[in-house]
Structure formats: C-alpha cells, structure tokens
Design brief:
38% helix; binds adenosine-5'-diphosphate; 25 helices
C-alpha cells in the first residue's frame, strides 16, 4: 500500500538564530551535561547540538542539516538516553546501523535493531522485549523497508505508543525521502505514515545534504508540523577546490599533483567505473604510490580489508567508486580527486567533504572533460553507474516511475557540467547555492581556482551566436554530433565536413572570427540549458558511444524569437585584468536589469540559473 503524503502547507521556522534553544535552564539541562560527559565522553557540544536537543526534547518536530561528521547522532542518542521510553531510529543501511549499535553498546546504552533480513526467531525475541513492561532498550533501529512492509512492527509501535513509551521518531539520512536528492530511496517516502499514526510523537529528521527543494520534500513527505529547522553553513574553509581539464595524460597529472602537493599523504580518488578504479590504482602503483582499489563488485571481506589498510595508513590512496565513503571518519584525508565527472553537485560536495575532517588544509581536484559528460550520461541511461550504498540498497517496490528518477539524474548531471564549465565564479558559491546558502565570494580568500585567477571576466551577449548554432543544428537535419556542428560553424574544410556538404543556410564558417573555445562554450551552454539535446546512442556493434545533437522544440522558440537572451562570462583579456577588480565579484550595475545572476532569494534551486543566461 502506498501512503501518499498529505498535501499541506509547508511550515517550518529557522531555529539556528533563536537564542531560546541555547538556554541552560531547561529541566533536562543538568542531566544532559552529565551524560554528554560521562556516557559519551565529550567535553562540550558542537555547533547546533545543544539547540537541536533542546528543541526535540521540548516536543517539537525538528529538521537538522549538519555536514557529515558534524555530530548528528548525538542529537538523538543523548535525548534517547535521558527520556523515558524508547526512541525509534530509521536508518538506511544495516551496516550503518550495526556500526551505531556497536558504539552504543560500548557506551553501555542498550540498543537493538530490526531488519528484513533478520531471522524470524531473532525478531520475535526483540518484539517480546518491546512488549515487556520493563523494556531494556533505549533505541530501536529499523530500515525503511521494515516500516513499509512490516505490519507486525507497526502494531508493536502502536502498543508502545499507547503505553506512552514511544519517546521519539528519528529519520536519519532524511534526504533519501526526496527524488531530488542524489540518494533517493522509495521506501523513505512511505515514512509519512509514522506521523499520521503518531501525530504527537516528536520527529527528528537528520541529513547532511539538502537543497531547498529536498528540504521541502522531506518536510512534506514526513508530514512534519511546525517544524524547526537547524542548519549551519556547509562551507568548508579548509578545503581547496579546483577543476582541471582532463587530458590523455590525466594519470600523469594526478601523479605529479600528489607528489608535488601531497607526498605520502592520504587521499581518495573517485572513479566512474569499477574498471577505472582498477586501472587508476595500477597506474599509480607503477608511479610508486601505495594505492589500492575499492568498488562494489569486490567481496565484502576484500573491501573491508582494503578499507582497514587505508585507515591504518598502510595504503595511502584508495581508488574507488562512490560505493566508498559512507561512515568513514578518517580525519586526515588530505585530498579527494575526481578522476571523472561526479553525477551531481550534492554528491560532489559530500565526496569532497571526506577530506580535511581535522580542519587542516586539504585539496579537492576534479579532472573534467566534456566527453566524460557523454560517457556518464550514457552510463546513466544504461543504469551502469555504481550507486552510493544509500541509493542502491533498495530499488525494489519503487512507486515512482524510473523515468522520473532518470530525468532528475540527467538534470543533476547537467548542473555538474555547468559547474565544471564555469571558469569565473567562486566554486564555493557555486556549490553552496545548491544548498540554498548565501555565500560572499570575498570569503573564499582565493581558495578556489576561479577566485585565485588574477583574471577578471567580461560578459558577452552570445545570443546571436547561439541562434546561428541552433539554426545550423536544424539545417543539418538533426544527425550530427556536437563536434561536427562546431567544425562546420568554425568553417572547417576537413573531408568529413565537405563530404556532408549540404545547405547549411550559409552558416558554414559563420563562427570563423570567434576566439577558440568560445563557440564550444556556447554550444555546451545550450545543451546544459536543454535548448539543444545530446541524443546518446550506441553507434555500432562494437558498442562505442556517439551522440547526435537535436533541438528541444519546446525551448528553442524563445531563443529564436528573441524572447531569450544568452549572456556568458568569459575571461577578460590578460592586459586589462590588472586594472580591474581582482576577485570575480560582479560590479554593481554591470549586468542589465532583470538579469538573474545569483538570486539567493530564489525559493528553489531549480530556479537558480548558474550559467547566467538571461531569460
Ligand atoms: P554525522 O552523523 O553528523 O556525520 P556523527 O554523529 O557520526 O556525525 O559524529 C561524528 C564524530 O564526531 C563521531 O566520532 C562522534 O563521536 C564525534 N562527536 C560528536 N559530537 C561530539 C562532541 N560534542 N564532542 C566531541 N566529539 C563529538
Ligand atoms: Mg550520521
Ligand atoms: Zn572561490
């Protein structure tokens, strides 16, 4: 049965700025302090921990956005310990649950879990304990499938509730609820039933990744009421970001980068495919690095062996798919390198976030080329990409069409491309904007590639170029690749172009005068904006991939009719740059009115235009 979320007004208030929650005068404050010290061994609270605990202990629904490693677990484990009754925790992965329970038991906090894969006898045992008048457990962890499928569990929760023993409901990794998120888990959508059945029990939802639209999805799907949102900045000042063009010599570049900047340091290299992981690891070993690979097809023993070796510094570099990283708490990861294009900005942010937990300077380097975009897109189409464990744990019983998920994936990917293609704006700003966070690029202090360029940029209206390209695509009969269209536009006289000579509306060579790279920036922008569409297909029996450019009929008219203008930023010529402002903040008034640059007030990230096209 599907529990469709009730439509209601999304109501939440920001709690972070409210001093009420910082108070030391709550009835539980003393107990809180004592247990934080004695049971958890902490000397103090981290940012927002006390506030979140006070709000949930007050009986409010609370939504917490805190970066990975920020200490979310404490915000429900400590209340669970000092509240009467039992706390229900929904968590996406049995391995994460087991890890948590191990830590709780070490601290002498009685906790247990129920999962679908557990022996029935064992489950019976736990249910019996739950029903006993003197249930020993303070925390009960379950996977979302368990809530969706086990009537027995719901009945037991009912009974606990009627005895006043259901203290709190916790939804960990709450972004899995949202299709907009990069870890969508269909079973999370059914969790709205908990609030429906137990409207008075406070819900605490926690996540490290939430864009504005994800946040709204979560609040709505879970049915949170007058929810208080605590969030802190997702900016990580000690991480340095840069995007580097990926060439054939990429592995040599990586080798050099590590040797020059991070000799003998510990790091992660994220790769797209399992084969890439193995190839990259092998090559780095040849270069003399202590590297190993890690991916989903290795058997669990092998995986945990590699992970342990890495944790103990016996291996420096791990070449992994996104399967690697969940629950990893190594503080001294000095670099995270992306060997290929990540699938989404949220995923990218989270993967980078595994670097520099100790607060020391660490590097995040992304090797990008446009052909990786085609490759990733193709792999997405074929379902060939290894998912993060959160997303892959359950695709069964999905009641959301796969098309929908696919579309979101493609959209997320396009945003990632536009991040990489952007050579002017602060990387922090470009990332944080996705989390609905305001960021003043002055605060980057040149810790990203774009801010540290001494160049400034100029804005250029490229609408006419864009129109010509679209017309060219239409006239070529919709059957040529991006590079072919570019060749024609730039006036190539190559055999290939000549061979297909046809009526190009006289546009052959129309872009001859343009600086190198400019035409391709424009065409890629049109793809990212979905005005042109890359149709990816397997071209032949050998399975090589090619793509054909088409126009998106529904979007192209606005451009051709002059309703939409396209403005892109380009690096200013080197000479002029020294006299201008060194850091790429737009001077006030330098953009035409109605230009949407970075409208921080936009309600949803979908409305934020990262590439400065004027609409
Ligand atoms: P998250 O779930 O936000 O990623 P965790 O709850 O797993 O983070 O906590 C990350 C680490 O921080 C854990 O090792 C935890 O013991 C530690 N930690 C949490 N709160 C505190 C605190 N107040 N003082 C010291 N260490 C803390
Ligand atoms: Mg956590
Ligand atoms: Zn910057």
């Amino acid at each position: 049965e599907v529990f469709a979320p009730k439509l209601q007004n999304i109501n939440y208030v920001e709690g972070s700025g409210d001093i009420k929650w910082k108070s030391l005068d709550f009835p539980w404050t003393k107990k809180l302090e004592a247990n934080n010290r004695k049971v958890f061994g902490n000397h103090s609270f981290r940012p927002n921990q006390r506030e979140v605990i006070n709000a949930t202990m007050s009986g409010c629904d609370v939504f917490v956005l805190m970066p990975t490693g920020g200490g979310k677990s404490l915000t429900y484990q400590l209340p669970a310990l000092i509240s009467p009754g039992i706390t229900l925790v929904v968590s996406p992965l049995v391995s994460l649950i087991q890890d948590q329970i191990m830590h709780l038991l070490q601290a002498n906090i009685p906790a247990t879990y129920l999962s679908a894969s557990m022996e029935w006898v064992e489950q019976q045992e736990i249910f019996r304990e739950l029903m006993s008048g003197s249930c020993i457990y303070k925390l009960l962890y379950v996977t979302p499938e368990k809530i969706a499928k086990s009537d027995v569990l719901l009945r037991h929760l009912d009974s606990l509730h009627s005895r006043g023993s259901l203290a709190r409901i916790v939804i960990d990794e709450a972004h899995c609820v949202s299709q907009w998120g990069h870890d969508f888990r269909p079973d999370y959508q059914g969790l709205g039933i908990l609030k429906q059945k137990f409207p008075k029990v406070p819900v605490l939802a926690l996540t490290a990744t939430a864009t504005v639209s994800v946040k709204e999805d979560v609040v709505q799907a879970l049915g949170l009421v007058n929810c208080i949102v605590f969030r802190q900045s997702f900016n990580r000042p000690n991480l340095w970001y840069c995007v580097i063009p990926k060439t054939k010599k990429c592995l040599e570049d990586i080798d050099k980068f590590i040797k020059e900047n991070h000799f003998d340091d510990c790091g992660i290299i994220y790769c797209l495919s399992r084969m890439d992981c193995e190839k990259v690891a092998e090559k780095l070993q040849e270069f003399g690095h202590k590297a190993a690979f890690y991916h989903g097809t290795m058997d669990p023993l092998q995986r945990s062996y590699v992970q342990k070796q890495w944790s103990k510094d016996e291996i420096n570099i791990i070449c992994a798919t996104v399967a690697f990283g969940m629950g990893i708490n190594k503080p001294d990861v000095r670099f995270v390198i992306h060997h290929s294009l990540p699938k989404s900005i949220e995923g990218y942010h989270q993967e980078c976030g595994r670097a520099g937990r100790d607060g020391l300077r660490s590097s995040c380097v992304l090797y990008y080329n446009y052909s990786d975009y085609i490759r990733v897109k193709h792999m997405l189409t074929q379902g060939m990409i290894e998912q993060s464990p959160l997303a892959s744990a359950s695709r069964r019983n999905s009641f959301v069409s796969n098309d929908r998920v696919f579309e979101t994936n493609i959209e997320n990917l396009s945003r990632m491309v536009s991040y990489c293609e952007n050579e002017t704006d602060c990387r922090r700003l470009l990332q944080l904007i996705h989390f609905g966070e305001k960021f003043n690029p002055d605060n980057c202090k040149r810790t990203c590639d774009n801010c540290s360029k001494l160049l400034t940029w100029v804005e250029k209206d490229v609408t006419d170029i864009a129109k010509q390209m679209v017309e060219l695509v239409i006239s070529t009969g919709k059957q040529y690749s991006t590079s072919h269209v570019l060749e024609v536009y730039r006036g190539s006289l190559s055999q290939n172009v000549k061979k297909h000579r046809h009526d190009n509306l006289g546009l052959h060579g129309a872009g001859k005068h343009l600086p190198k790279g400019e035409a391709s920036r424009v065409i890629r922008h049109l793809v990212v904006e979905d005005i042109l569409v890359e149709d990816v297909r397997k071209s032949d029996i050998y399975g090589s991939i090619s793509s054909v450019l088409k126009v998106n009929e529904s979007k192209v008219q606005r451009l051709l009719s002059g309703k939409q203008r396209i403005i892109l930023r380009f690096p200013a010529p080197a000479k002029a740059s020294k006299m201008n402002k060194p850091e790429g903040t737009p001077a006030k008034g330098s953009l035409p009115m109605n230009t949407m640059t970075y409208d921080m007030g936009a309600q949803s990230t979908n409305e934020i235009d990262l590439n400065l096209s004027v609409k």
